[in-house]
Amino acid sequence: MPIILENVSFFYSKNTPLETAALKDVNLRIEKGEFVGILGEKGAGKSTLIKLFNGLLRPDSGKVTVDELAPSSKEVKRRIGMVFQQAADQLFCRTVYEEIAFGPLNFGYSKKETEERVFEALEAVSFDRSMLLRDPFSLSGGEMQRVALAGALALRPEYLVLDEPITGLDPGGKKEILDTLKKIKDQGTAVITVTHNLKGFFPLLERIVLIREGRISFQGSRKEYLETENVPLPPVTSMMRELKARGVPVNPAIFTVEEALEEILRVKSLLEKEKAEK
Amino acid sequence: MQEPVFSYVPGTSFLHTLDPRTKLAAVMLLGILVFRTESFFGIGVIFALFIALASFTGLPTGIFFRAVRPMLLFIIFIFLAQLFFTEGKVLASFWILQPSIEGLQNGLRLSARFILLLLFAALMTASTDPSAITCGIERILRPLPLRWLGVNSYELATMMNISIAFLPLLFERVERTKAAQASRGMYFGRNPFHSVPALVIPLIRGIVRDAEELALAMESRGYQGTRRTSMHELLMQKRDWASLFALVFFAALLLRF
Ligand SMILES: Nc1ncnc2c1ncn2[C@@H]1O[C@H](COP(=O)(O)OP(=O)(O)O)[C@@H](O)[C@H]1O
Ligand SMILES: [Mg+2]
Fold first, then answer.
1. Does A88 contact chain B (CB < 8 Å)?
2. Domain check: are A32 and A71 in the same one?
3. Do A212 and A44 contact (CB within 8 A), yes or no?
4. Phi and psi of A122, rounded to 5°?
5. A151: nearest Cα among A93, A204, A190, A200
6. Protein residue whose Cα sits closest to atom 21 of ligand 1
7. The CATH number of the domain where A18 resides is what?
8. How far is the C-alpha of A75 from the C-alpha of B122, rounded, in Å?
9. Ligand 1 pocket check: which of A48, A163, A216 to mutate, most ligand atoms within 8 Å of Cβ?
10. What is the pLDDT of residue B99?
11. Which of A83, A154, B146, B187 could pair with A121 in a Cys bridge, judged by C-beta atoms 3.0 to 4.6 Å apart?
């Protein structure tokens, strides 16, 4: 059972001179277990879109349902784990343990149940138990982001929704988050992420939703996306396309530098072999 | 991008060309006038003055709504407090609440005053380059014996100016934290001992971090908190004195009513 948006529109400051149409007539369906990327320029409406999923914002017209439930219900807040970009803006406890336990306690789970969930979430983000007594504010940006992630995971959500989770992190922090998300997805949780970091995320995305000025301008598999004109691409994919356009017979559907290197070497040896045969 | 509150809109209108000190003095004067005016007629006249100045300046109406919006809750609170806690002729009776006619009048008057104050402040900030505001405040404060307090007028002016500039960022931060905590199942208003720390602690930490970063950034660009020689020393023109005179005349007239 999926997250469904039907003809959804959303305005900020409706009926005032400041009215901004942030989303216009959006239709979207996100299935369980998918890895979805929501792409688009700054101000396109990505953050607005995800806030509709768990009822932080209500649509002005159209309908949002999560597993057939209304997004304002508390159960939806449990099923959808949400992580925002500025992890530091949500941390307020004195230990990492309390921070991760905040969600489960809000939902009224017993002490024992909560503890179990905290340990499980901690493991999911590859922290060891020594982390639990640390002060969240003494951590690095990437570590704070993982604590925030663990806080969301402790509710055992069916959908994990993230807003620019790796923006502003150092390369090590980025990789840790990406690896963690991949693991979470492999365990069956849907991962939906807003991002403009195509370099990091593109290899993981199964489905892509592209938003332009509040409208969905593309929605489909990564393969379909690559066949579409005028869409943002990871730099290395653009380079492979350019190589192909200039007559080097490479496969342009490549998303990482490692793959690109392999592909170029493959073509190189192919060309050398052809030459030798002549 | 969410537009900032109290931002500067460059332009060449009459208000734009006035000395920042004139406008600061005018806002203070209007503030006093607004709180001295009791009659609804008088408040209406001041509002008309605002409309005249604003349309004259050609600023987008949006900035005025933005200036009032963040304070709306506070204004409504004040209105309700007046409505219910002023003794007088009872309008109606709900349970223990008894709004009075006097309360309604006081409430309307007081909220109109706050709104007017915000509107005039927005008019000033929208028509004055922020660095000119700093300059103006600094010149006004210069004669004060601030050294005794361990600050100088330039420091104080910069401080006031930064506080104004940081306000919108603060509101944004509140929104972000609220969204993050609500996503973790927190309900505001159910248990304040639970929800207030979850909002306030990240907020204060964020502000402190921003302030530290700002201080470093300012220092690395040569700010030392001492008075610097200004690029252009401010000069009051004829039109400044004329405007101030007109305003004082207007105030005197209105208060006589
Ligand atoms: N709190 C708000 N009040 C008014 N307008 C907003 C607010 N938040 C976002 N907007 C506007 O809505 C549009 C979409 O914003 P957003 O969803 O944050 O975009 P994105 O996340 O893609 O950068 C933008 O035009 C933005 O200015
Ligand atoms: Mg955003």
1. yes
2. yes
3. yes
4. -60, -40
5. A93
6. A47
7. 3.40.50.300
8. 43
9. A48
10. 83
11. A154
Most confidently predicted of A16-20, A252-256, B217-221, B251-255: A252-256
- Smallest CA-to-CA distance from A91 within A144, A16, A153 is with A144
Do residue A37 and residue A127 come from a single domain?
Answer: yes
pLDDT of residue B254: 83
A186 and A53 inside one domain:
yes
Check whether B136 has a pLDDT greater than 60: yes
Span B208-235, pLDDT tens digits: 878 877 777 777 666 666 555 555 567 7
Q: How far apart are CA A242 and CA A236, in angstroms?
A: 10
Question: What are the tokens at B183?
Answer: 């996503």
Q: Return the DSSP state at A137.
A: G
Do residues A173 and A263 both lie within one domain? Answer: no
Tens digits of per-residue pLDDT, A176-205? 999 999 999 999 999 999 998 888 899 999
Residues with CB under 6 A from ligand 1: A 12-13, 20, 22, 40, 42-48; B 1-2
User: From CA A251, how far away is CA B155, in angstroms rounded?
Assistant: 62
Nearest-angstrom CA–CA distance, A178 and A201? 7
Domain co-membership, A269 together with A193: no
The predicted structure's pLDDT at residue B222: 65
Q: Does A82 touch chain B (CB under 8 A)?
A: yes
Task: Give the separation between CA B87 and CA B91, rounded to whole angstroms.
Answer: 11
Q: Which domain holds residue A90?
A: 3-232
- A24 phi-psi bin (left φ>0, alpha ψ -120 to 50, beta other): beta
Chain mean pLDDT for chain A? 92
Where helices occur in A33-129 by DSSP H, the ranges are 46-53, 74-79, 96-106, 111-124
Q: Which residues of B29-59 are buried (b: 16+ CB within 10 A; e: fewer)?
A: bbeebbeebeeeebbebbeebbeebbeebeb
Integer Cα distance of A274 and B157 in angstroms: 75
Query: Using CA atoms, how far apart are residues B96 and A152, in angstroms rounded to an integer?
Result: 44
Please tell me whether residues A212 and A252 are part of one structural domain: no
ipTM of the complex model: 0.74
